[in-house]
Structure formats: C-alpha cells, structure tokens
Amino acid sequence: MKSHSIGTQKWLLVCCAAISLLVCPSRVFATETGDGGLVYYCTSGTDKYYHSKRSCTGFANCMGVIQPLTPSTARIKGLSPCPICTGGDTPARAATPMPTTASGLTDVSQQVADIKQQAEDIKMQAKERKQAIKDAKKAAKEAKATAREAKAEARRQRKEASRMKREAIYSIRQEAEDLKVSAAERRLEAEEMKREAEELRREAAAKRKSIAAEKRRIETEQRRAANEYQRQMTQQKLEAIRMQREAEAIKRDIKAQKKAAKEARKAAKQRIKEAKRARKNR
Predict the structure, then answer these.
(1) C-alpha distances out from residue 222 to 76, 210, 253, Å
(2) Considering the domain boundaries, does residue 79 fall inside one?
(3) Which of 74, 86, 138, 167 could in theory staple to 81 by disulfide, Cβ–Cβ 3.0 to 4.6 A?
C-alpha cells in the first residue's frame, strides 16, 4: 500500500512537472491579455503599464481615454504589464508542497484536471486567436484590395477630372477666342456704323443747308412774284381807273350826243311845224 502510494506520488509529480512546463508560458500570456487577446492603456501618457482589464483599478488616475491594443504593440510603446491585473513584476509564489495523503492526492488530481481544462481552454483560445488572426488577415487583404480598387477609382476619377478640366479649359479658351473675335467684329461694325452715322449727319447737314438755300430762294422768288403781282395789280387798278374814267367820259359824250340828238330832233320838229305853218299860211 505504501509502495503504491509512493509510485502514485511519483507519477503525479511527473505529470505536474510536465503540465507546469506546458502551462506556465500560456498562463503568463493569459494573465497579460484580456478578452480577444487585447490589452488596454491610458492615452494621457503618464501610465507606464498596460492592463488586461478595462475595469482595473490602475486606471483610477487616468486623465485620458482608455484604448485597446495588442500586447506586442504595448511592448513596442515601452509599456510594462500591470502588477495588479496581469501579475507582471510580482514575486513568484513559493512552490506548494506536494500532498502525501489520499485527500491530498484527490486535490492534486483535481488540480491536474483543472490544469488540463485550463490547457484545453488555452488551446481553444489559441485556435480562436488564430482564426481571428486569419479573419483579420483576410479582412486586411480585402481592405487592401478595396484600397487598391479605391486608388484605381481615384486615379481614374483624377484622370477623368483632369480630362474634363482640360476640356473645360479648352472650351473656355475657345469661347474666349470666339468672344474676342465677336467683340472685334462688333467693334468694326460699331466703327462702320459710326462712320455711316457721321456720313448721314454730314448728308443731313448738307440737306439742311440745301433746304435752307432752296427755302431762301423760294421765299425770294415768292417775294419777287408777290411784288410783281402787286405791281401788276396796281397797274391793273390804274388801268381800270383809267378805263373807268374813259367809260365815264364816253358816257358823258354819249349823253351829250343823245341830248344834242334830242335837241336836234326837237329843232327838226320845230322847223317842220314852222314849215307846215308856213305852208298853211300861204
């Protein structure tokens, strides 16, 4: 019975040593990281440690923002494991003496089972982390592909924008040239119209002068004709007066002649009466 218990103790010691060799590095890693393999640090710059838990009491004096990061990144930043939540920089505990009683063996068996379960959990976590790393790599690859496509699209858009810019500049320059030509043509037309207007003004001035001269000539002729007409009318009036006087003289002569003829007839009648009276007296 004693030899059997001694053999069992040796077997348990070997198992504990092997399991401790397998588990210790993983246990350290497990104490250094939090959920999903990430640790946390304070962005204020005064904290020299990274923490495995966001709720660690080491964040009590944090004046910045608590941000997650990977342990390797934390080491690159020069951060050390927090002695509160990760157990970093803490003195190693003394080895627990191996039990020699049956209850002690039961406790060791339970510890071995717990250690195996922790090892399985660590393996599962490692697998999950590997899968997460694969997913992250895949996502990074997709992100790179998307970035390449975005760069290609941006390059194409820049080329299209450059082409449109060149076309716009060419179109604007062409329109500017057309506007310049049109403006020059309009200036020439305006100068031509100005010359025509000046010519028309000169012609109008000449016509006004000609009309004024013609008007003066017509007025002079009209005054001359009026004077001539007035002179002729005066002559006609004088002639009419003369003829009226002659007619009156003729009327007086005719009246005198009629009176003389009447007196001559009366005298002839008187002579005839006297002649008849004389014949009767004979």
Answers:
(1) 124, 18, 44
(2) yes
(3) 86
Residue 146 lies in a domain: no
Residues 148 and 78: their CA atoms lie apart, in Å, by 34
Cα–Cα distance for residue pair 46/24, rounded to 1 Å = 31
Q: Which domain holds residue 48?
A: 2-90+98-129
The pLDDT-based confidence of 195 (bands split at 50, 70, 90) is: very high
Q: Confirm whether 154 is domain-assigned.
A: no
Distance CA 230, CA 245 (A): 22
Widest Cα–Cα separation across the chain? 254
Distance from C-alpha of 69 to C-alpha of 39, rounded to nearest angstrom = 6
The pLDDT assigned to 126 comes to 76
89-92: long-range contacts at Cβ-Cβ below 8 A with a sequence spacing of 24 or more?
A: none
Task: Establish if 273 belongs to a structural domain.
Answer: no
Strand partners of residue 42? 66
C-alpha 200/C-alpha 99 separation (Å) is: 134
- Hey, what are 98's tokens? 């191996």
Q: Helix/strand/coil (H, E, C) string of 197-250?
A: HHHHHHHHHHHHHHHHHHHHHHHHHHHHHHHHHHHHHHHHHHHHHHHHHHHHHH
56: helix, coil or strand? coil
pTM exceeds 0.70: no
Asked whether the beta carbons of 16 and 112 are under 8 A apart, the reply is yes
Which residue reads 């810019």 in tokens? 165
Asked whether residue 25 carries a pLDDT value surpassing 60, the answer given is: no
What one-letter code names the amino acid at 274? E
